[in-house]
Specification:
Elements lengths: L2 H14 L5 H16 L10 H12 L4 H14 L2
């Protein structure tokens, strides 16, 4: 399955299972797309080191609140 096919599924999960607001779902989806666009691996081969490296780079350019949101988005995406 293509990673872009997973985003609509993830959005449905966030809405129906987690009851998140539309703005939160949009922000989480943007965060996931941002992460996946920088990874040149099959989604099945992405590991914690890839996520940690992404967050380390993000830490230098986003606020603490945005970084916390990105962490929440990535955690919920991999559940």
């Amino acid at each position: 399955m293509d990673t872009e096919d997973l985003i609509p599924e993830y959005r449905r999960y966030c809405s129906s299972e987690r009851g998140l607001s539309p703005k939160t779902i949009s922000a989480y989806s943007r965060d996931i797309r941002s992460f996946l666009s920088g990874i040149e691996k099959n989604i099945g081969h992405i590991g914690s080191k890839d996520i940690t490296a992404f967050l380390r780079v993000q830490r230098a350019s986003v606020s603490a609140r945005s970084l916390a949101r990105k962490i929440c988005a990535l955690k919920s995406f991999w559940k």
